[in-house]
């Protein structure tokens, strides 16, 4: 008697493993994607502040307050001591270093993130 290899209800093991891997990837993406978007928005905003640093009204304290406000609105754990602004006669360097904890069931991943922007200053 000839047996049927793929009878109704028979699921290949590879399909189950692939489905489990896809499910894990989707669950990780759901947790990580919003955080990555927020980190990207903060990086973009820090670049904008570095570009505006040559204006007289954009002193170091104002830039620091603006970065802290933006990070708070994005729920990123940036504190005052994480921000370093170094201004020379013709350049500005803004460095923001912080760690974002990403919590998964049974595991917490700590993502170390560093933003660095350096721009020339042109005073008119």
Biggest pleated-sheet summary: 3 strands, antiparallel
Q: List low-pLDDT spans.
A: none
Lateral arrangement of strands in the main beta sheet: 1-2-3
Shape, principal axes of CA atoms: elongated
Please indicate the count of domains: 1
H/E element string?
A: HHEEE
Separation, N- and C-terminal Cα atoms = 93 Å
Average pLDDT reading: 91
Beta-strand percentage range: 25-35%
Number of beta-strand segments: 3
How helical, in percent, are the residues?
40-55%
User: What would you call the structural class?
Assistant: alpha+beta
Give a description of the structure.
With 124 residues, this protein is of the alpha+beta class. It has one domain (13-120). 43% of the residues lie in helices and 27% in strands. It has two helices and three strands, in the order ααβββ. The chain has a three-stranded antiparallel β-sheet with strand order 1-2-3, covered by helices on one side. β1 and β2 (91-104) form a beta hairpin. The longest helix has 39 residues, at 13-51. It is elongated and about 90 Å long. The mean pLDDT is 91.
Please write out the topology:
Blueprint: H1 13-51, H2 60-73, E1 83-87, E2 91-104, E3 107-120
Antiparallel strand pairs: 1-2, 2-3
Helix pairs in contact: 1-2
What does this entry show, briefly?
By secondary structure, the protein is of the alpha+beta class. It contains two helices and three strands.
């Amino acid at each position: 008697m000839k047996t049927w290899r793929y009878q109704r209800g028979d699921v290949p093991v590879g399909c189950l493993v692939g489905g489990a891997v896809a499910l894990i990837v989707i669950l990780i993406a759901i947790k990580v994607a919003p955080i990555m978007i927020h980190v990207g928005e903060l990086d973009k905003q820090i670049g904008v502040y570095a570009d505006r640093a040559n204006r007289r009204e954009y002193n170091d304290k104002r830039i620091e307050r603006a970065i802290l406000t933006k990070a708070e609105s994005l729920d990123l754990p940036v504190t005052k001591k994480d921000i370093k602004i170094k201004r020379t006669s013709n350049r500005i360097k803004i460095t923001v270093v912080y760690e974002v904890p990403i919590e998964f069931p049974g595991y917490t991943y700590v993502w170390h993130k560093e933003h660095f922007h350096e721009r020339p200053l042109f005073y008119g």
